[in-house]
Amino acid sequence: MAKEKPPSLSVQAFSDHHVITQPNRLRKVLRRVDEKDFDDPIARAEKALAGLSGEFNDWMAIECERLAAAHAAILKYGFSTATSEELFRAAHDIKGDAATFGFPTAAAAAESLCRIIEHAPDLERVPAELIAHHINAIQAIVRENAGINNAGMAAALSQKLRGVADEYLAAVNRDRPEHLEAILAPSIVPAE
Amino acid sequence: MFRIDFNKLRFLLCDDNAHMRRILRTLLHSFGAREVYEAEDGATALEMYSHYAPDIVITDWSMPIFDGLELAQMIRQPDSKGNPYAPIIMLTGHSEKRRVTMARDAGVTEFLAKPISAKGLYHRILNVVANPRPFIKTKTYFGPDRRRNTGSTYIGPERRSGAEAEVLQQPSLLEKARISG
Questions:
Q1: Stretch B109-132: mean pLDDT
Q2: Is any Cβ of chain B less than 8 angstroms from the Cβ of A54?
Q3: In sequence order, what DSSP letters do the residues of B34-83 get, joined into one string?
């Protein structure tokens, strides 16, 4: 596709903007198929993803090690820009990946930690236990996942942490309406 | 019913997390894609974008060096010699309203919140292939039309002005490149 000659653009000029329409050269990759076509690319991809699932526990363990290392750096060097960003990125990756890897409650705890890092006005003044509890919880959820069915306990733990974190964030941001709004706003992104 | 011939599409993936790149690569290959290029930071992705001219870019937001938002802004340079119109799908753990608005204003075409699903990714790709939006250029924005509601009844302060359109035919990107080169 990318090697083909680019088509001409059509530009409509208005007083304060231009509307630029490019002929859709990607349309050529669309093909009409019969309703009875049994080839389902989504099912095929889900099956391939399931084929990877044997590696998810190991991947999650690696993500947890990164999170623990980022926390250790903060305990040693304090909250510099570099150490704070690495802790955020490690937590943010778990927030994004953990549900795919089969650890949705770890994702929820990681999201709560991300919110603390993003919205606390001064990370040095965040109770150290609040951050440590989040990290310990994520590690425990991942570690215990292979054992007995702890899903209910893990969910309760994540919810409790989120409650405590939100209460803290609401209190320290009471004079910062833009953060308060972000903390209280629900996600607007559709699930799929 | 329509299907996409993924084997005719060229993808550029940008995510600093190797596990997520593996997931994305697996999904795209399962859909049928053959040409999937990968970058682990925004700077490398921009270089690969110029070199490989992908049809679709899928990028994470949070990355070292420069992030997915900056990558989108750099691709959406209307006067660049490269292609500023390629669809950009932002796949990210950020899902707050403020972040979605920022991504939209940087010229991102579609937004997909993690956790990723095969269905979610497929439908975003289908949407950018089958239903491309025109681009809007203003003093402060260049990117896909941010208004999905095409109704003409909106009379609020953000309504664009200008009644009659003056239609200008522009040279193709290739012709532009030849002229400037």
A1: 94
A2: no
A3: -EEEEESSHHHHHHHHHHH--SEEEE-S--SSS-HHHHHHHH--TT-SS-
